[in-house]
Amino acid sequence: MKIQPRTLNAERRTPNAESGSVLVLVLWIALGLVTLTLYFANSSSYELQAADNRTSGLATEEAIDGAARYVTYVLANYATNGTMPDQTYYQTAAVSVGDAHFWLIGRDTNSPQVNPDRVTFGLTDENSKLNINTATLAMLSSLPNITADFAANIVTWRTNDTSSGGVGPETYAMLNPAYAPKQEPFETTDELRLVYGADMDVLVGEDANRNGALDPNETDTDRDSQADPGILESVTVYSREPNTNPDGTALINVATLNTQTISQLTNLFATNFTSDRTAAIARQLQGTGNGSTTVRSPLAFFLTSGMTADEFAKVAGQITTVTNAFIDGRININTASAAVLYCVPGISNYVEQIVSYRQSNPDKLTSIAWVIDAAGLTGTDATQLARQIGNRITTKSYQFMADVAAVGPFGRGYRRVRFIFDTSEGTPRIIYRRDMTHLGWALGKDVRQTWLAKNTDQ
Asked: pTM for the full model?
């Protein structure tokens, strides 16, 4: 039987065709497996990165908590009796907590900012700021870039007294959405955002991330190469000073100089001065009012007593002119910025002299008496200055801000939390905590470049 060639050729091609089909199928399967492998490998890579970021974030959170505990220790040991901690006694930058690190973003109010793009590190004194719950309308109106209307609205918000010129509840009722003014003291400075007329340019100024430095992403509107801050930089609600001795005993109230008060003062002087000097100061006090003299402030008492500034520093912490358990709103003239000093009645004409004096004489800032020497006044001029200042200044601090920024291993997991610590009742305690991470990187370009360099080397 003769086989047809076509049939033979077809039969001969069939195995090859089947082999080709199998090969194509195998290739498609291989391609699918490779695709799945790459997909899962990529997913695993992303998951690994996410896990690494979560780990870095957890390490950063631990660094934030570690910083809070560290600051508590620093304040308990170096901020006793209203003392501002000496920065040489504690660490402020790149403090390690395991593989994470934290920084305390601070301010230097005693030295001009030579490098406006560099962040200053350290604790910040809340008593160096103007307390918006106790400040008068005139004091608030002296804050940088504030409008007279906004200053009046601040007073009205906390008091419901529209005689200052601030708007009342009816104005807030017309807002969308409407809300009622608080008509109570401010609990935080963040509440200023709710006051009618609040504007971020006035509140924050050019320092959008509120770190005290001019960062590359911030606009230098007036082109002065400085991060001109808003009023939030200069205000607080936390300044409070105990009106007792450290052991809780009462101070000597010198508001009225009479026989009994002078007798108490004589005993105090005897433990600090020679007998001759004690007698001389007692005679000076006895001769000022024929038995009874009203003294409105410790600074006025200093001028009345005839003591030197060094002598007054030895007894200043043991006298008072008020009976309250705490004194709210005093401003620490040793640490206040020039912007805040301009708000203190009587001092505004001598701000440059005051700042220059405390820079040149850091060892003489032991009591408020130095402000008289800094102003260069004597006699009735000095008395007039003391009358204007009143009971508004101090050299003690009991509330401190710790603006903590932290990064985890390899500079990842950035976090920033702002704390306020209060030491006015003895043991330091946290009275305010706010997450500031949303404001972005606040450690300046130098720290960023340092971490980038470390990551490149690894």
From this structure: 0.87
